[in-house]
What we know:
550 residues, Rossmann fold, globular
Amino acid sequence: MKERVTLFGASGTMGSQVFEELRRRAERYDLTLLLLPGDARVMRLARGLREAGIDTSRRAGIAEGRGVRVVWGDATDAATVREAVRGADWVLNTMAYISPQADYRPEVAWAVNDLAVGNVLAAICDEPDGARRIGYVHTGSVAQTGNRPATGRAGAPGTYVGRVGDPMNPSVYDEYALSKIAGERRVMESPLERWVSLRMSFIMPTDHADLMGLFDPIAFHMPLDTRMENVTDRDAGLAMANCLELRHERTFWRRAYNVGGGQGMRTTARAYLGAAYGLMGLDVGRCMEENWFGLRNFHLQYYDDSDVTERYLRYQRDDLASHAAALRASMAPGMKLLAWLCARLPAVRRLSERVVHDRFERLARGHANSPRRWYLTRNDARVRAFFGGYAAYEAIPAGGLSDSIDDDGPWTRFDHGYPEGVEDLARDDLRLAAAFRGGEWLGAVGGVGEEGALDEGADGEGLVGWHERCAWRCGSDHEFEARPSTVLRGGHWCPRCLGTWDGGRRAALEPFFAQAWYADHDPDELEPYPADGAEDVANADVAWRARGAR
């Protein structure tokens, strides 16, 4: 008998690849998709839906096809989500409201990335024996762990290589990261017995138009020395789909994993931009300028543990060369012609570079979400967050992008503050972990869990199960509940402290968090960032388009 899979976010860059991957396994799976009626990206699915006999012109109610069922509606509506999950054996959630849109409409980001996740989890639990029977695959984000500089302060080793369990460290004013942290925490604290969170790195489209289609200054938020271990959309889709092969692999479930492309997909932001524009025959150094880009407060990293994910999911097929080949093959004919001309006629290349530069310069100087504009308009909070102050910005060399790329230097692995690798947690392990996080472990508060939550050891000291509910207190005297797995394996801590934009004070209290914060902040940077500091870019994309239309 076929298993039934509900897929959320099927119209997205990764979700459409998951859809195609599962359609290739149609003899084993029937699909239910929840699709937003007004979403133009549904056309990505047009061929597969047409083959299933589904008419996408009528976007209301429920459409039944051959092996595919479509529920038209919004995941923020609990009743619609229950209908989509009805009868499911698996739920795969690739939906996300991502940056830069999340910067401009954070309320939508919270609705999709947090509230809707709660609706999905509730719908699973409402199904007969759902919490035990239904497998749930969640998508987290590399943004959750924030900026990981290639070089630390005063020449100290960088922190650009990360692993699951590192502290949650959302960049200042990154509502997308905050909402993804909250959504993942819901999953980790849920009663589901078979869940996994795949924390996706930058998902690189293999279609050239998709990759180059975003014209937004969020590209300038990224420091040029950022290390990135990207993953292609098709490899990310394969990773999601292959989770369905591991129903009985007990060690895989109830954990988070980093999903990157492996060694072959590692690069720097500077090299990535150079390669992307090089495909079009352009020198990116003549298209952009150094002082358009931030110096800190972004995300992305190499992964120390994506090999663990690969051993389970066998998804890493692409490298930088195969990704470039896919982009080249998918270029529109006109773009291929322009690239050919730029490569052979210097005058055409110089003219094209000047046109691109002028267009980006208008964006850098005029868009409310641009680091260059923050400097020009004396936006103190943003300049401090992304540069460390005006002096740091003014020290950036003027002129076009340099092609100088520093080799990867030494790096520091974060300490997680407990004896890693233990199968059973002693109470002293939890006390030690809490103290390293600036707080206290207050004890177990739940009943005996699946793993035997409280099991007396030979020495009479109680052992605590990884998924037993516990009470904790943070360094700011906030009390909260969380499973040891959420805190130790997931890197989560006090939910009330997370969005205060008060990293300097937190780092002074929390050695665990300080490892991330002090990598690119001085210990005397104690002033909190204004809580309303993100409001200056509300609907900035709409304002920019309106400005261009005038």
